[in-house]
Amino acid sequence: MTTIFTRSLLVTFTTLLAAGLAPAQAQVVTPIGTIQGAGALATPGTYTIEGVVTAVYAGLNPAGFYVQNDAATADADPATSDALYVVQTSPSVAIGDRVRISGAVQESASTPSFNQAVLTGPTITVLAASSPLPAFTVLNNTTFTVATAEPFEGMRVQFAAPVTVTDVSAVKSRGELNISPLGLVYQPTQLVDPNDDPASGTSSAGSSNVAAVLAYQAANANRTLRLDDGRTALNPLPIPYLDATTQTVRVGSTVASLRGILGYGGSRWRIQPLPGPDAPVVTTARPPVPTFGPIDVKVASFNVLNYFNGDGAGGGFPTARGANTPADFQRQRSKILTALVQMNADAVGLIEIENDGTGASSALQDIVNGLNQALGAGTYTFVNDGGPSSQPFNTDLIHCAIIYKPAALRPFGPALLPTVTGVFERPPLAQLFITNRAAPTDTFALVVNHFKSKASGSGANADQGDGQGASNLRRKTQTAALAQFISGTVQPAGTRYVVSVGDYNANFEEDPMDILRAAGLVVSGTPTSTSYVFNGQSGSLDHAVLTPNLLGHAAVEKWHINAAEPEFLEYSNAGAATDINSPFRSSDHDPILIGLNFRSVVTAAVSAAATVRFQVFPNPAPGALNFHLASPDARPLTLEILSALGQPVLVLHGGAEVLQAELSRRTAALLPGTYLVRLSGADFSQVQRVVKQ
């Protein structure tokens, strides 16, 4: 019987082997880093990996989860990623599962990879649950770029310093934000002059510095990535990352310690969020109305987003450029009026208001009626530009207008318009005013502008690829005509002070602004003072341009209520959900406020955190580098401060300690802007470009 049993067992075992049911040989486990490699693409093939599930995304397309080697099982090569995305239609694992997975790895532009290394057709074995997660890889904000992201693909990462929201345009439609580890992303021509290096030059022709503009643009792209919401659903609800109180997220909002998975999709590197305590927390704050010290006059400039009031009697909708329905117009009107009431300016230059004259049913009269209903009869009136049905010399559906408080100002002479033809679509409007509050009284002129946009142009007005957009030649022609209008018409009408405001459709260092500087005018503010966001980059299309004699007598502040806010808050998008009592996202451009004091120095009120007199420019990210004087000995030094036009502003003499103390005291009266500081002594000379905030 023993022999028979032995033979029977042998036959049975042999049969099992033939059927392939014998115990499997040990599988070869490949470290993920070996698969990922140090190049741009993972090595395709069939592999078995082991790791810990770090994140699960059932809502992505394709759905799946990330697996990462911990320190004990990684390949210890910092040039290779230790993580992979595993494609699984209905993920069957949980965060913290230690898993063994076999499947095919690919990385290509086609589905389901989309240029991310993925493992497909997975056979999954859960080896243990609730395993410790791999440590976060800390990314240095100052050195991280898109170009250096590959070694961290799919891994748990954490930025060492706060990241900044730079674009909010897709937060409602896709649940995504653009972020940067180095603060706001600026339009290149906000800081880099296409013609001049350094940018303090005033050339307005040529292309000698275009390479620097293009390099800055490339650097912008290299330091911008997406903060995703872990879903691919369109119009996700609730909208992620909104402030619980204000229901907004703004350009400039921050995440103090961003953690997540560094994934790739939609042709972008993106941070996929983690749940629980590692979830991104976005900090959003809205700014109050800027305030000033003692002033004689407060002036403002406000783009009112195609303010069309139909026929003025409740009909005429949809309008040519503005509201589609009476209800929409009332929402727009309420937000515009709320912003104007809170600005409480003595004179306001309005841009993008319907060009339908000055009659009782006009859009201009409608705004004045609304303000007077809110603030009291007669609080505001408008400047009559001489056009009962449309503005003279205007060829557009919108025009520039001025409203003012008769209690504070009275017109000195008639409104002024350039009489040149074929130059402006929307000519500048100027009005000289006499101040009622100052003793003795003084005069100043307010000029309101709206130059040709960057959106279109052909021939010589086509986009030249220099960062200035289309129709730059047209804007240059308009700028030259504006400078001539100011010097040849406005000032001879009876004033030495001119405040020229509006939408110049040109960033801080573009040709039109240099034409104004070359004409002896001062473009106020700094390159980092912005008013508009386009394609996720912040710039300043809106400016306050001053005659030099207003230096020290004017403070200029932008009220950031619009450009930083998401478009879904606009009346035309929000509909019945519009917050009609809020000024935020009442338009797409930020208003400008200017405080004027003709008798003494005027400064803007600033917070204790913003008391720096001068900062070296451009600043090293992410913060400012204060400008300090230093000298190895007590030898006498001369310090000169020159305006952006090269005009001497301040000259001081003495040792380094004396100059440093005097610099802090004597620069309080200077208008915010860009200056050159020249420090010289025996066998010593240094020039530094600085910005006064």
TrEMBL record:
Keywords of this entry: Signal
TM segment ranges: none
UniProt xrefs under Gene3D superfamilies: Endonuclease/exonuclease/phosphatase (3.60.10.10)
Keyword Signal tagged: yes
InterPro entries according to UniProt: Endo/exonu/phosph_ase_sf, Endo/exonuclease/phosphatase, ExeM-like, Secre_tail
Residue ranges occupied by any Endonuclease/exonuclease/phosphatase domain in the UniProt entry: 301-589
Database matches in Pfam families: Exo_endo_phos
This protein's record includes keyword Signal: yes
Stretch forming the signal peptide: 1-26
Name assigned to this protein: Endonuclease/exonuclease/phosphatase domain-containing protein
